[in-house]
Amino acid sequence: MLSILVQRSLHAVLVILVVSVLAFLLTSLVGDPVASILGIQATPEDRAILAERLRLDEPWVVRYLSFLGGAIQGEFGISYSAQRPVGDLLLERIPATMELAFSALILSLAIGIPLGVFAAVYRDSWVSSALMVGSIVGVSLPTFVVGILLIFLFSVHLGWLPSFGRGETVDIGWWSTGLLTWSGLKALIMPALSLAISQVALIARLVRAEMLEVLQTDYVRFARARGLAPRKINLSHALRNTLIPIITVSGIQLGFLVAFAIVAEAVFQWPGLGLLFLQALGNTDLPVIAAFLMLAAFFFSAINIVVDMLYAVADPRLRVKVALGST
Amino acid sequence: MSTVDPAVAATTRKAPGRWQRFWRSRLVRSFRRSKTALIGAVIFLLLALSALFAPLIAVTDPYDLATLDLFNSHLPPIWEEYGTAPFLLGTDSQGGDMLSLMLYGMRSSLTVAFLAVATSSILGTTLGLIAGYFGRRVDGVIMRIADIQFTFPAILLALLIGGISQSLLSNSARAELAMPIVVLALGLSHWPHFARLVRGAVLVEKNKDYVAAAKLAGRGPWTIMRRQLLPNVLNPIFVLATLDIAFAVMGEATLSFLGFGLPPTEPSLGTLIRTGYNYLYSGEWWLIVFPALWLVLLVVSINLVGDWLRDALNPKLHQGS
Questions:
Q1: pLDDT at site B9
Q2: Contact assignment for A148 to B273 by CB distance below 8 Å
Q3: How far is Cα A241 from Cα A103, in angstroms, rounded to an integer?
Q4: Structure confidence at residue B113 (pLDDT)
Q5: Cβ atoms A187, A169 nearer than 8 A
Q6: Would you say A144 and A262 are in contact if contact means Cβ atoms under 8 Å apart?
Q7: Is the predicted ipTM greater than 0.85, yes or no?
Q8: Which of A307, B35, B96, B131 supports an S-S bond with B142, CB 3.0-4.6 Å?
């Protein structure tokens, strides 16, 4: 157990270091940050002052180390376009993205698990085969297409839901949440749904496959022989055993949801990290891009560690394999 | 019904022709049985052919402004009021026929997708062969790079590569290099999938007798990789490549929609949806709904075939059959 944790952590450190080098190269060797902040009409004095403030005159090894040191403390310099510390910009955007991704995850589990269980229990019914075809359609729906079609239906045509923004938010400490206001919840529905749909298909397929396998096992057959009600067998004996792989897969799903949240945020103008990143790309706002890279490296490494640990807990065979050094 | 195992038949009788062997193979038989795969393949072929022959079918040519007539702009589909022949699905703000735009758009979408998959599969297969065959240090380095990439979801990598390289270019260079950048972004984000797959297969194959025989015959490592190992790991590569085309089509559309893919002057399914998105509230719904559904249809057709292919080539599912 510990050896997996150490191994994965070392891997995470490697990932973060590699990404930090790339992020640093991006901010320091590309373009002229002074010109991109001040524009072409700046005086030489202004340029010199800014160059010193940005520490552009030091050797790059020193600058890399100070970049890395700053990154560890959450300091990434000043955004070219917003003229504010990048760390603050990112921090205030985190709640929006996290609420969106987690809502989508919960939504996809809440729809996907029952669908999968149903399809497994009634494996020969038309619903089951419809679900299998439907899930292929589900994974073929790009997030932005679902988002646009939802806007088209519920905002443009029916006028029920807002097509952009986050609604009203409430601050709890530094975390601003949209989950506590009516308009915030209404604004969340479509972005979360557009993110969730392709994941619903994946979850439903996974649950179905796992359930079918578990329903073949001896202890389910014995439970049937004991005369237990099918409902009890399906839900408490079978489903419980399929939950372990579902939990680990949910971790991977969360990673994908955060990645695709960038797309959903663009469609719905959701004020999260993704939108900030896209705007930074549009403005060539390099400190923000670099900080986003670092944050992504950290976030996805953390998710991978958690997922790997969950796998190890769920599947003891893997524990042995890793201990023997063959991954 | 007693079917002769093709491998046995090949050794006892005169070997049937290549085409016959192909038609009788388990793969093709299972394809002919799978309704969803057939439907998917037919839809995809129709779409691909219509994209290929777009210049013959299309009413207007988005690359030739002379075929556009502003007089015909903003027309709704033909079944609505003011709908005008020959613009079946309506026209855009330039007077371009929507159906023609989508055919040309699908052309660039599919071109980008095929080139991207070619990039990722060739790169991934080569690196996977090298890693698996040489092992040790080389293997460690290649697979470590792959692992680092695997930390991130592929779509995020594609967006990072495409977005950052576009944002670093000047406007004129951006439009010119847009296509290669999208191809590279999608290709580079997916090569580890191929590398991992091929490496795993090579690790199994390289200890077999035929590889030892080739070594004894004095063949060099590169020849062995190409002539002995590659043909034996092609099946899974093929499955992955098929599924990857769906990813690449969606990836191109996503990048273009976000503004980091093809430029608006180059119609693709993604850029068409991006343009249509601006008209969402104008009532000109055909500008957005048709390209969106067209894109979904294209991806679904590929995934229907890919899904069958994955099952058909999965040895686990054939046990006892």
A1: 47
A2: yes
A3: 24
A4: 92
A5: no
A6: no
A7: no
A8: B131
Q: How far away is chain B from the Cα of A156, in angstroms, using its nearest Cα?
A: 6
The better pLDDT of the pair A124, B71 is held by: A124
- pTM tops 0.90, yes or no: no
Q: How many CB pairs under 8 A join A and B?
A: 106
CA-based nearest residue to A310, from A246, A216, A229, A239: A246
Of the candidates B271, B310, B278, the one whose C-alpha atom is nearest the C-alpha of residue B294 is B271
| Interface contact A282-B167, CB threshold 8 A | yes
Per DSSP, the three-state class of A193 is: helix
Q: Do A145 and B152 touch (CB under 8 A)?
A: no
By C-alpha distance, the chain A residue nearest B158 is A259
The tokens describing B114, both together, are 């095929």
Band (pLDDT 50/70/90 cuts) for residue B96 is confident
Q: Are B253 and B273 in contact (CB under 8 A)?
A: yes
To which H or E segment does residue A177 belong? Answer: strand A175-177
- pLDDT category at A326 given cuts 50, 70, 90 is very low
Name residue A96's amino acid: A
Instruction: Specify the pLDDT at position B118.
Output: 93
Closest Cβ opposite residue B153 in set A141, A256, A293: A256
Q: How many CA atoms lie within 13 Å of A155's alpha carbon, on the beta-carbon side?
A: 22
Alpha-carbon gap, residue B182 to B179, rounded angstroms: 5
- Comparison of pLDDT for A43 and A121, the residue scoring more: A121
Q: Which amino acid type is present at position B307?
A: D
pLDDT at B69: 67
CA angle B295, A139, B161 (to 5 degrees): 70
**What are the chain B neighbours of A326 within 8 Å (beta carbons)?**
none
Selected residues 78-117 of chain A with any CB under 8 Å from a CB in chain B: none
- SS3 label, residue B68: coil
Write out pLDDT tens, residues A17-71. 888 888 888 776 665 666 666 666 667 777 777 767 666 666 777 777 877 877 7
| 8 A C-beta contact, residue B287 and residue B98 | yes
